[in-house]
From TrEMBL, chains A, B:
Occurrences of domain Thiamine pyrophosphate enzyme N-terminal TPP-binding (ranges): 1-106
Domain of life: Bacteria
Family, similarity comment: Belongs to the TPP enzyme family.
Keyword Oxidoreductase: no
Residues that span the membrane, as ranges: none
Keywords from the named record: Thiamine pyrophosphate
UniProt keyword ATP-binding present: no
InterPro entries found in the cross-reference section: THDP-binding (IPR029061), Thiamin_PyroP_enz_TPP-bd_dom (IPR012001), TPP_enz (IPR045229), TPP_enzyme_TPP-bd (IPR011766)
Record domain Thiamine pyrophosphate enzyme TPP-binding: where: 378-508
Entries under SUPFAM superfamilies matching the protein: Thiamin diphosphate-binding fold (THDP-binding) (SSF52518)
An example Gene Ontology molecular-function term: flavin adenine dinucleotide binding
Organism of origin: Modestobacter italicus (strain DSM 44449 / CECT 9708 / BC 501)
Pfam families given in the database record: TPP_enzyme_C, TPP_enzyme_N
Protein's name in the database: Thiamine pyrophosphate-dependent decarboxylase
């Protein structure tokens, strides 16, 4: 068995069954070995940012790592932005980066670069496998590191000769350790601070059903308010589930939500801070005098902690949940509200919504809260270009669930190549491009930072018109059927049609401002 | 004056007059300041790899740095592959990366990451500007570092508050230092080793006209053979210029060229090595027993050294130059030879050819050597996705010259967003996509590394069909007029038409195998 075969067999034995790949010469033995291990599904992407984002989406939906296969330092660089997002999502991910043969490193060949330095910025674990004899065990360690608590990116650098040489062995299977439990006295101590001037701030798995129900019980029993982190990796919501407001992205909105709060209890989330600093303001959002408590860090079992807390303080309370309620299908003008209403009116059962709508998403939470139960995946690390790849990985994770990518136009262009993989794999992803012809968020941020000069040259850098992007042409050019909607009725008809048909579709929703 | 204004004014004063930009929130003051400094031309790109590759192309054609404007660590990551290529091209480049305000860093906001670690892997110089009072002088240092000899990537990390605060001053102008001269005795000593079993190995500026003429004189006077590095940043060639063979990319071909060579004299190039290691072979290409000499390192003035050498050993020799000779326009089947013949037959005067044709480029050197004088820019660092961005930057550098991008299909998809910038700026770039529906080079490499299993699953990872990419749709979707050629006649007619019209065009050349 050669090294590549051992890596793939170890991955499969360790529960890593999908590899999002962008191989090059140094990964050819890995590619060849795929034919020997049919249990590994390899999904080709045309750009590494698609591979890393897809692995993130896959992990968010399964809780298990996918592997990537990237080509040397530049391939890792291309995948870095979505590895950054994956790091912020705290997902498990086995990031395999091929490298030159060991004896080739010192020659400083054209593709030589410092892989370890780049990998270190997004990985909780980095190792270069140095011998074929060890590569199986190295892979075991990579899987274990990725599946630590919380999940993290584990980067295995795989030299070409370690791959191609014979004498490898499959690494041992190591069972994933359960998350560390919060000690009882930590939970006990918090009972006293709950109440109407307290916020229970939820993140991580606290935003999935069991955590939400426990938190909602605490809220119902004590009057404690619930808030969710601004950009959750995965949040379950819809009719029959507790409806938790996400802390708003704009710092002013966030501060309003936290105004008067005396105790902030972190449950799987970290203390909220402003996304960016702005002139004359503090980036901290927690009000002066508010005490921050920790029920569970992202590295601890938050759901059990919430349940224990609920049992302690609100054993008989009935959690409040969202009612079944959908908006009417809108007519006429296709603006942000109509866009949200179409989504809310038609969102199918068990949908996975990947939200990179950015400024176009304002009305989405309200319009979808009473739709059938669904998952909501967001831009965890703020590095745009995450939506289409994450949607791709989510669709690979569970083909039985319809995936809806709500995607801002400017951001879509960062990893537009994801559409091709959706077409090749015939993934059931419906992408709605929120087409406003601008980096609209930057126009707002230009105001926020007090830099709005109104100048024409500045404005040109925020404008995506001239030429307008034709997303219908771009999608069909990559094999994804696409249509354009300019009215609410058109969007509704096209969205309904796309959902009714298997396979990927794209709708270019031309939004009125 | 705020920090951003000082940075831009210092750049302009230091001869940096173009900025390829992908701004985000932390760069908004930089964007606003563009309206105050009209001498700086800002070119918007839709993806950072386009910005960094365009800055590389601009520098190759002007010898002067452009600036980039990237958004935080993820933006730098997206631009990293083409910064890698720029590093290998040894071009000057001022890489401006916006960052969080200084007081915001410790909050570990979602977009926080280790910019310095990533930047260090591609930069010869990295500095974070820490005060608005110093930012002008920091910018001066960045320009000076970029314009050192040879050129390099200088990364200036620009915190948002350093940009937005008042109290900045324009940094001093520092004149670029000339390249260090090779001492006379270094040149003298080499005279004795020249002859038919010696190769003068040319790289860097030795591949521009003056260097080539001096090297060809040496060759004519002494029988010394000339070879060029495999992937030059910029090589001048065509009728009336010496025709120098590039060392072949496949190691076997390279070894054949170097077989029997007793002395290898490096002139602006480094010792050649194989691009990749392969099982059972050594990555070194220089034959056993061959002595390597250095006429000039890439950090020294190689052209003057070649001229001094020519004066010393071949003062009266007449350099051999390529004759005027163009292929006939081919007819019928559009294969690799016909593709090359169309390019050779129609290549316009003073063309800039950006060559990322990869496996489709086999016949290009022979077909174009007798065409009118032109520049040839290649994939210096091996990180694919360089062609369209470099063509974009080359066209910005000199609008009077037609730019021809010969672009492999798989590689094109890495930075396809460059087409939009070409459309917006109405750049005179004619892109010919070598459309073979495959990562053809990887099929060859699968053989080279001895991994060809013939397996279907491996084959699927090298195949770009299913669905086929429609480059006509992709180009028109970004505002670039496009056509498809399936015969030699169609390619010739479309290439001629594209060259006759200003602005960008794309031809999807469907190549027969």
């Amino acid at each position: 068995m050669n090294g590549a075969q051992a890596v793939i067999r170890t991955l499969v034995a360790g529960g890593v069954e999908v590899c999002f790949a962008n191989p090059g010469t140094s990964e050819m033995h890995f590619v060849a070995a795929l034919d020997d291990v049919p249990e590994m599904r390899a999904v080709l992407t045309l750009f590494e940012g698609v591979a890393t984002g897809a692995a993130d989406g896959y992990a968010r939906m399964t809780g298990r790592p996918a592997a990537t296969l990237l080509h040397l330092g530049p391939g890792l660089g291309n995948g870095l932005a979505n590895l950054h997002n994956a790091r912020r999502a705290r997902v498990p991910l086995v990031n395999v980066v091929g490298d030159h043969a060991l004896g080739h490193k010192r020659l400083d060949a054209p593709l030589e670069s410092d892989i370890d330095a780049v990998a270190g910025t997004v990985s909780g674990w980095v190792r270069r496998s140095l011998t074929t004899g060890d590569v199986g065990a190295d892979t075991t360690d990579a899987i274990a590191a990725a599946r630590g608590w919380p999940g993290q990116v584990a980067t295995l650098v795989l030299p070409a000769d370690v791959s191609w040489s014979e004498g490898a062995a499959v690494g041992p299977v190591r069972h994933a350790r359960p998350a560390p439990r919060v000690p009882d006295d930590g939970i006990e101590g918090l009972a006293d601070v709950l109440g109407p001037s307290t916020v229970l701030f939820l993140g991580g798995t606290a935003l999935q059903e069991a955590g939400l129900r426990a938190a909602a019980k605490v809220a119902a029993g004590t009057g404690t308010r619930l808030l969710a982190e601004t950009f959750p990796a995965r949040m379950q919501r819809g009719a029959g589930l507790p409806d938790v407001l996400k802390l708003p992205y704009p710092p002013d909105g966030a501060r309003k939500q936290l105004d008067g709060v005396e105790h902030l209890v972190l449950a799987g989330a970290v203390e909220p801070v402003a996304f960016f600093g702005y002139p004359g303001t503090d980036g901290r959002l927690v009000p002066e005098g508010c005490t921050v408590h920790v029920l569970a860090t992202p590295a601890e079992e938050v759901v059990a902690a919430l349940q224990a807390l609920a049992d302690r303080v609100a054993a008989d309370a009935t959690p409040q949940v969202a009612e079944v309620r959908r908006p009417e299908l809108p007519t006429g003008r296709l603006d942000l509200r109509a866009f949200a209403e179409v989504v809310g009116a038609l969102l199918p059962e068990r949908a996975v919504v990947v939200d990179e709508a950015v400024t176009s998403g304002y009305f989405l939470p309200g319009a979808t809260v009473g739709a059938p139960g669904h998952d909501w995946l967001t831009l965890t690390g703020g590095a745009i270009g995450q939506g289409l790849p994450v949607a791709t990985g989510a669709a690979v994770a569970d083909p039985s669930r319809p995936v809806i990518a709500l995607q801002a136009d400017g951001s879509a262009m960062y990893t537009i190549q994801a559409l091709w993989t959706q077409a090749r794999e015939q993934l059931d992803v419906t992408t709605v491009v929120c087409d406003n012809g601008a980096y609209a968020i930057l126009a707002a941020e230009l105001e926020n930072v007090g830099a709005a000069s109104g100048g024409e040259r500045a404005g040109r850098l925020l404008d995506l018109g001239g030429p307008a992007l034709d997303f219908v042409a771009l999608a069909t050019g990559m094999g994804v059927p696409a249509t354009r909607a300019t009215t609410a009725e058109e969007l509704a008809a096209q969205f309904r049609a796309a959902l009714a048909e298997p396979g990927p579709h794209l709708i270019d929703a031309v939004l009125q401002r």
